[in-house]
Amino acid sequence: MASYAAAPSSAGTHAIGPRRLGVLLFVASESMVFLSVISLYSVGQGRVDHPNPQETLSAARMIPFSVALWLSSGTIALCARRLARGRYGGMRLWLLATVILGAVFLGGELSEWLELFGERVTAASNVWATTFFTLTGIHGLHVIIGLLMMLALLGVSLRRPLAHGGESGLELISIYWHFVDGMWVLIYGVVYFWSAFMAR
Amino acid sequence: MASVARPLPGYAGVGVGPPGAGLLTWVSTVDHKRIGIMYVATGLVFFAVGGIESLLMRSQLAQPDAQVLSPQVYNQVFTLHGVTMIFFAVMPLLFGLANYLLPLMIGARDVAFPRLNAFSYWILAASGLFLYYSLLSGGAPDVGWYAYAPLTEHPFSPTNAVDFYALALILSGAGTVATSINFVVTVVHHRAPGMSYNRLPVFVWMMLVTSALSLLALPTLTASLIMLLVDRLLSGHFYDPLGGGLPIMWQHLFWIFGHPEVYILALPAFGFISEIVPVFSRKPIFGYSFVVASGIAIGFLSFGVWAHHMFASGMPIIADMAFSASTMAIAIPTGVKIFTWLATAYGGAIRFRTPMLFALGFIAMFLIGGLSGVTLAVVPIDWQVNGSYYLVAHLHYVAVGGVAFAIFAAWYYWFPKMSGRMMSERWGKAHFWLFLIGFNLTFLPMHLLGIEGMPRRVYTYPAFEGWGDLNLLITIGAFIMGLAVVVFVGNVLWSLRFGRPAGDNPWEAWTLEWATSSPPPSYNFASIPTVTSRRPLWDVAHPEAPDWEHEREL
Q1: What are the E-state strand segments in B43-134?
Q2: N or C: at which end does chain B have fewer Cβ atoms within 10 angstroms?
Q3: Which of B380, B368, B383 is nearest to B446 (CA)?
Q4: Which domain, by its residues, includes B332?
Q5: Which residues 115-134 of A have a C-beta within 8 angstroms of B?
Q6: What single DSSP character describes residue B405?
Q7: Where are the alpha helices (DSSP H) in B313-353?
Q8: pLDDT of residue A45 exceeding 90
Q9: What is the share, in percent, of chain B residues with pLDDT greater than 90?
Q10: d(Cα B446, Cα B316) in Å, to the nearest integer?
Q11: Average of pLDDT values for A181-190?
């Protein structure tokens, strides 16, 4: 009996803590929202005359903004590293850099939207435009939520030292942020590279 | 060392206040048991509402050319009935019971994120009210529970009803996803010492699979509803053929959610039965690993069968064949479950108490529903009976004969734990027999009506079709079911006051929830128990022959 009772406890030896696991499950769930819309995009994009991605979108124009977003995944990792070493000044700097890079991306997307609106391309134009605005809109909303969380964290860090480690707020936000950046790889690949550039 | 209670993260300082009875303590509670009870109570209220809606429909259909409901109202009533029963009656009843039981069964003091748990409940309750608020804004949704495009597009549904439908389901989906995250993290992180995955109660295993399905299936519904709202509110074209959209994509996305959803409802029910049949047969469950593995197999397969809802939509023949085959394949793990329950009961000293009666009723009725499901997987048969009452019969044998029977079994089984009092056996048996008879009178004749060609979702039918007699019989059966539910509610109210005190373990059961007092204290376990086998309370009661000595054989 003793051997059973002393068998290793089911709990206690986990590499992934509860909060981290919770966020990982959440982004896994969110990814299905993106995959659903992307699947409709790939079904619907070839079926339209005008506006269509080949004429309206520029794959090159979004490159600098996309790179800014992908770089921000690196800066938030540097931010976590500074935090782990207790260097709060550097941590705040890299967090601010992440927010700025995210905002640059958002600005790029917004200017593209406004340009399209100027050409009278809206969600009501045709199925391609509907899907394009919905997909980039849902992604942009995720970016905005990420930026708000980071700004809140920045505010907290000015008042008291942040926790660090796998279960810390910064670590949980960066999981979400990597997910948002990763989704943009998929969206850039399908929308800008495949449907706008390759199909030209 | 392993038996030392470790502090539970996320628990400290919440939910341990004095167990006051004031309304405010319920509103502010984060105790999984109170939240579970609120879920169950909400589910019962919506179950009554959805039941009244079905009786309204049956009153209209009792005779040919009747005029109890207008066609417009009839459409709203059958839509509300479906949405209410699935999302706001059965889901809260299942997730509420799981909320109550899951932490107790694994020896935890609460779920991993108690405040998130309260959020899940309140957003679900609010979204249920939100759906019904549509009645005040000019009429309820009238597009059926699966709301096929392009009927839901603005030109065909100009009122706000479909927007209410979409928003209510998006909100309730968010609550379900949050609960599912909570359940998975709780099981991974808060099991008592010794509670290995190989010793988890089958119900907990089924909730793990259900949570995984919810996490992946519900966001698909959310996305398709967001796209529907874009179509309706921003003049989009996702499902609008004039703008290049494809209405068929709604069907695909909806059923990629919808078929896993069927198992999100069925797997917890399987879990209930797998807990109840062994206790009332006085035997350990037969083939534990097969019961668990078949549940996991059903979870995987459930994502590969969605288009069997769409055989009539003109898919390529190869798709018809593939989905026909995958649908028949899912009957195999389901059959494994039926056989393990029968093998568990076989040769046992069966106690025919009310929970066991409902569990046996479940096995028989669910079997009929499962078999008619296999007939529907045969594409030529499906083409004949698609959209007829045959389908209505099938889905209710699964949803009522399956899920509702299991919920009643679970209710009678765990009510003593939750309230501290036994339900009346006499009235429980009256409830069972009335419900069983009423159920079969209602849904068995629907098979015949369907084969004879009576379409579903028609508000009336002409007398010359000769469907009047069977329809009258169905309506009588429906009202017998209604009477059974009245008996049930009376039994609950009576037992809450006058029921015999239950004691800790009235059924001589073996899982950890029965180690606590009835009802359990807010902290569940004063010291976290150490688990030595799949039946921890058996080991305590029978130290001379504990289960763990035989564990490798089980």
Answers
A1: none
A2: N
A3: B368
A4: 33-553
A5: 122-128, 130-131, 134
A6: H
A7: 317-345
A8: no
A9: 90
A10: 30
A11: 96
- Output the pLDDT for position B25: 87
ipTM comes to 0.92
Q: For the segment B282-291, what is each residue's pLDDT rounded down to a tens digit? A: 999 999 999 9
Domain layout of chain A by residue ranges: 62-200
Q: How many CB atoms lie within 10 A of CB B289?
A: 9
CATH of the domain at B491: 1.20.210.10
Phi first, then psi, for residue B114 (nearest 5°) are: -60, -35
Cβ-based neighbours of B510, under 8 Å, separated by 6 or more: B278, B279, B534, B535, B536, B537, B538
> Can you name the residues that pair with B388 across neighbouring β-strands?
B455
Token pair of B388, please? 């007829």
Rounded CA separation B406/B356 (Å): 10
Do the chains contact at B548 and A40, CB–CB below 8 Å? no
How far apart are the CA of A179 and the nearest CA of chain B, in angstroms? Answer: 16
Number of structural domains, chain B?
1
Query: Cβ separation of A26 and B197 shorter than 8 Å?
Result: no
Average pLDDT of B510-514?
96
Q: Give the residue carrying structure tokens 């029977």.
A: B405
Tokens of B92: 């809260």
Phi then psi for B236, rounded to 5 degrees? -75, 180
- Indicate the residue of A21, A30, A43 with minimum beta-carbon distance to B185: A21
Identify the helix (H) or strand (E) that includes residue B271: helix B247-281
Residue type, B297: A
- Cβ-proximal residues to B486 (8 Å cutoff; 6+ apart), any chain: none
Cis check: omega of the bond before B150, within 30 degrees of 0: yes
Q: What is the mean pLDDT of chain B?
A: 93
pLDDT for B15 beyond 60: no
Min CA distance, B74 vs chain A (Å)? 33
Report residue A42's pLDDT band, with 50, 70 and 90 as the boundaries: confident
In order of A101, B120, B143, the CA distances from B87 in angstroms are: 41, 13, 16
| Closest by Cβ to A14, choosing from B189, B217, B245 | B189
pLDDT digits (tens, 9 = 90+) for B109-133: 999 999 999 999 999 999 999 999 9
Decide if pLDDT at B485 tops 50. yes
